[in-house]
Write a structure and sequence with these properties.
The complex is a heterodimer of chains A (521) and B (122). By secondary structure, chain A is an alpha+beta fold. In chain A, 58% of the residues lie in helices and 15% in strands. The two termini of chain B are 17 Å apart. The chains are: A alpha+beta (521), B alpha/beta (122). Bound molecules: magnesium ion (MG).
C-alpha cells in the first residue's frame, strides 16, 4: 500500500507541477506585460527578471495549488465507494509482508481515514490478559483519550460485535433497540467518535474492532459499505490475527527473558551463598586458633617474659582476627535462611536508626540530609534488621561518595499505579563510572580497600527477597541515585499473620551471647 | 579444682583451650570427637563441657542429646562457628546452657564457665 500510495501521490504531484508550468507560461507573458510599463528600465527586460518573477510565482502558488488538487482528488474519491475498496485492496497487499502489530494498526487506521475522508478511525485490539479491547492505533484521537478506551464484555458494542460479527452501523442499531439500549449504543459509539464499528475475527474469536467516524460530507454508511467492510474484516482478520499472535509471542518472550534473568540472578546468589557458608565454616576454625593462641600468649605474658611491644602486636592479632571473622559472619548470616520477625515497617524510624548508626562510622557534619518520607505509606511488612541493613549500606555508600560534603536525599513514597513502595537514596558525590555500574551489585566489588564490597550485594539480596527491583543511575561528579521498588502485597494488610512465625526472642537465650547472635542474625 | 571438658575436632583448638584453662587453674580433659567425648565423660565427670557443634561423625547436637539424657546436671556450652539459628535453637531446646561463637573471646568464655560452676554449687 505504501508504494501504491506513493505512486498515487507522485501522480498528483505531477499534476500540481503541470498546472504550475502552465501558470509559469502565463507568468512569463505577465512579466513581459509588466516590463511593457517600464520601457526604459533595463532590469525589467532582462532574463533574470523573468526568472525571478516565475520563481516567486511558483513559491507563492505551489502550496495553494497543491492543496486544491489534493482536496478535489479526495472529494472525488470519497464519492465513489469502489475507490476506497481499492485502497483496502492495497492494504491487504501491503500487510502481507509481516509487519509488527503496532505498525500494521497505524497503517490500517491511516489508510482507512484517508480513503474514507473520515476524521476519526480507531483500531481496538484484544488484550488477552485482561480480555479487553484497548485502543491501539488511532487517526484523529489524542493518545491521552486513547488510553482511556477499553471495552470489555460489559460493553454493548463488544457483545454485539461478538453476536453479529458484521459491521455495526450506529444509525441502524438505534432503530432496532429500545431507547435505553439505544442510549448505551450512542454513548459507546460517541466515546470512539464512530458511526460504524467493524468487528475483526479470526477462527471465531473477536480480535479487534475497527471504529470509523462518518465519511467526508457526513455520508452515512450503506448496505454496500457494510458488505465491503465485511469482506475487509474477514481478510484483515487473518493478517491482524497473525500480527497479534506474533506480538503476544514477543511479549511472552520478553517476559520469559525477564524471568530468566531474575532466576539467573537468584541462582548466582545461591551459588555464592553455598560458597559463603562453606567458606565461613572453613575459615572460622583457623581464625579461632590464631586468636586463641595469641590470647593464651597474652595471658602468660609475665611468665614467658613477653615484652610490651610483642604484647601489643598480639593484641592486634586478636583484634584483626575478630575483624576477619566479622566479615565471614556477615556473609554467612546473609546466606542462611532465617525466621525473622515480620512486622509493618516504620520507614522513618528505620532511616533514623541507620543515620544514627552511620554517624559512628562517618562524619555527617558536612553532609546535608534531606528526608522525604511519605506519611501515609500503605503498611509494608518486612523485618527491621533487614531494612536497617539495607538503609545502612545505601547510606554508607552515599556518605562514602561525598568525602567533601554534599547532599544526601532519602525519598520514600507509594506508587499507587503499580502498588509499589519506592525508595530513592541519592547523593551529590563523585558518581560511579559507567563501566562499574554492571558490577555494582556483585559480591566483593569495591573500589575502596577498607570495604569488603558486600554492602550493595546485601542490599540487592534483600530487595530480591521482597520481590523488588533495584537500579543505580549515576553521573560522574554529579552523584548517584539508587532506586528501589518493592511491591506492596495484598497480604501486607494483615500484619498479624506475618509475626506468628517469629522465633524465641533473643532475651530468652544466654546472657551476652545472645547479643552476639543478634548482631549477626 | 573445677573440671571442664573441651570437645572439638580441631586439635589445636583443644590445645589452646587446655593451656588457657590450665593457666586459670582448671582441670581440663579434651576429646576430638563426639564418640570420644561420650566415652570419656562417664569416667571424668566434668562439671562443664565446651562442645563444638560441627564435627565429623557424632556432631555436637548428637552428643548434647545423649549427654543431657545420661547426665542432666552437667552444664554444656555450645561452641559455634557460623551455624544457623535453627541449630542454635535446637541446641537450646535440647538443654544447652549457653552458646558462644568462634573466634572465642577467652575472657568471656571463662566468665561464662565460672558462672555455670557457681550455679552448680548453688
Ligand atoms: Mg569443628
Amino acid at each position: 500500500m505504501r508504494y501504491a500510495k506513493k505512486r498515487k501521490k507522485f501522480l498528483l504531484k505531477l499534476l500540481v507541477l503541470l498546472s504550475l508550468f502552465f501558470l509559469a507560461e502565463a507568468g512569463r507573458s505577465a512579466s513581459s506585460t509588466l516590463a511593457g510599463f517600464f520601457p526604459h528600465n533595463k532590469f525589467f527586460h532582462s532574463e533574470s527578471f523573468h526568472l525571478i518573477f516565475v520563481v516567486s510565482l511558483f513559491a507563492f502558488l505551489y502550496r495553494p495549488i497543491d492543496h486544491f488538487i489534493f482536496s478535489i482528488f479526495r472529494r472525488v474519491l470519497s464519492r465513489c465507494g469502489a475507490d476506497y475498496s481499492r485502497d483496502i485492496e492495497f492494504l491487504y497487499e501491503e500487510s502481507k509482508a509481516q509487519m509488527p502489530l503496532k505498525e500494521l494498526g497505524n497503517l490500517v487506521v491511516n489508510t482507512l481515514a484517508e480513503a474514507l475522508g473520515s476524521a476519526v478511525v480507531t483500531l481496538l485490539v484484544l488484550d488477552r490478559k485482561s480480555n479487553a479491547y484497548a485502543a491501539m492505533s488511532s487517526c484523529g484521537l489524542k493518545p491521552s483519550d486513547m488510553s482511556k478506551l477499553r471495552f470489555t464484555d460489559e460493553h454493548l458494542i463488544v457483545r454485539l460485535a461478538k453476536q453479529e460479527n458484521e459491521p455495526l452501523v450506529r444509525d441502524e442499531l438505534i432503530m432496532h433497540f429500545s431507547w435505553q439500549e439505544a442510549n448505551v449504543v450512542v454513548s459507546e459509539f460517541q466515546n470512539l467518535r464512530a458511526a460504524m464499528i467493524v468487528p475483526v475475527s479470526v477462527h471465531g474469536q473477536l480480535i479487534a474492532l475497527c471504529a470509523m467516524g462518518l465519511r467526508a460530507g457526513a455520508k452515512a454508511y450503506t448496505a454496500e459499505d457494510k458488505r465491503l467492510f465485511q469482506e475487509f474484516s474477514s481478510k484483515m482478520g487473518r493478517v491482524l490475527g497473525q500480527a497479534l499472535a506474533m506480538h503476544e509471542l514477543e511479549s511472552m518472550n520478553l517476559e520469559l527473558r525477564d524471568k530468566q534473568a531474575t532466576l539467573l540472578q537468584s541462582s548466582k546468589l545461591s551459588a555464592i551463598e553455598q560458597l559463603a557458608s562453606g567458606f565461613a565454616h572453613q575459615i572460622h576454625n583457623p581464625l579461632t586458633i590464631i586468636s586463641g593462641k595469641a590470647q593464651v600468649l597474652l595471658l602468660r605474658k609475665e611468665k614467658m617474659g613477653i615484652s610490651e611491644e610483642v604484647a601489643r602486636e598480639l593484641q592486634t592479632i586478636v583484634k584483626e582476627t575478630r575483624r576477619a571473622a566479622d566479615i565471614t559472619h556477615k556473609l554467612a548470616a546473609f546466606s542462611r535462611p532465617r525466621k525473622p520477625v515480620r512486622e509493618p515497617l516504620d520507614f522513618s524510624q528505620i532511616v533514623e536508626d541507620a543515620l544514627s548508626l552511620i554517624s559512628y562510622q562517618a562524619s555527617l557534619d558536612s553532609i546535608q540530609v534531606i528526608r522525604h518520607i511519605q506519611k501515609d505509606l500503605p503498611p509494608f511488612i518486612g523485618t527491621v534488621p533487614e531494612f536497617r541493613e539495607l538503609f545502612l549500606n545505601l547510606l554508607l555508600n552515599a556518605v562514602d561518595a561525598m568525602s567533601g560534603g554534599g547532599t544526601l536525599m532519602i525519598k520514600i513514597r507509594h506508587l499507587p499505579a503499580t502498588s509499589e513502595i519506592e525508595i530513592k537514596v541519592s547523593d551529590s558525590g563523585k558518581g560511579i563510572p559507567a563501566e562499574h555500574i554492571p558490577m555494582l551489585f556483585d559480591p566483593f566489588f569495591s573500589t575502596r580497600h577498607d570495604r569488603a564490597g558486600l554492602g550493595l550485594f546485601i542490599v540487592q539480596k534483600i530487595v530480591y527477597h521482597y520481590g523488588g527491583t533495584i537500579k543505580a543511575e549515576s553521573q560522574e561528579n554529579q552523584g548517584t541515585v539508587f532506586v528501589i521498588r518493592l511491591p506492596v502485597l495484598k497480604s501486607s494488610a494483615h500484619p498479624s499473620q506475618g509475626s506468628s512465625d517469629s522465633p524465641a526472642s533473643p532475651q530468652d537465650r544466654g546472657r551476652s551471647a545472645s547479643k552476639e547472635v543478634h548482631q549477626y542474625a | 579444682m573445677p573440671k571442664i571438658m573441651v570437645v572439638d575436632d580441631e586439635l589445636e583448638i583443644c590445645a589452646f583451650l587446655r593451656s588457657f584453662f590450665e593457666e586459670r587453674l582448671y582441670e581440663v580433659v579434651t576429646a576430638t570427637s563426639g564418640e570420644e567425648a561420650l566415652r570419656k565423660i562417664e569416667k571424668e565427670r566434668p562439671q562443664v563441657v565446651l562442645l563444638d557443634i560441627k564435627m565429623p561423625g557424632k556432631d555436637g547436637i548428637d552428643v548434647l542429646r545423649e549427654l543431657k539424657q545420661k547426665f542432666p546436671k552437667v552444664k554444656v556450652i555450645m561452641v559455634t562457628a557460623v551455624e544457623t539459628s535453627d541449630k542454635i535453637e535446637q541446641a537450646i531446646k535440647l538443654g544447652a546452657d549457653n552458646y558462644i561463637t568462634k573466634p572465642l573471646s577467652l575472657e568471656y568464655l571463662e566468665m561464662d564457665v565460672k558462672d555455670k560452676i557457681t550455679k552448680l554449687v548453688d
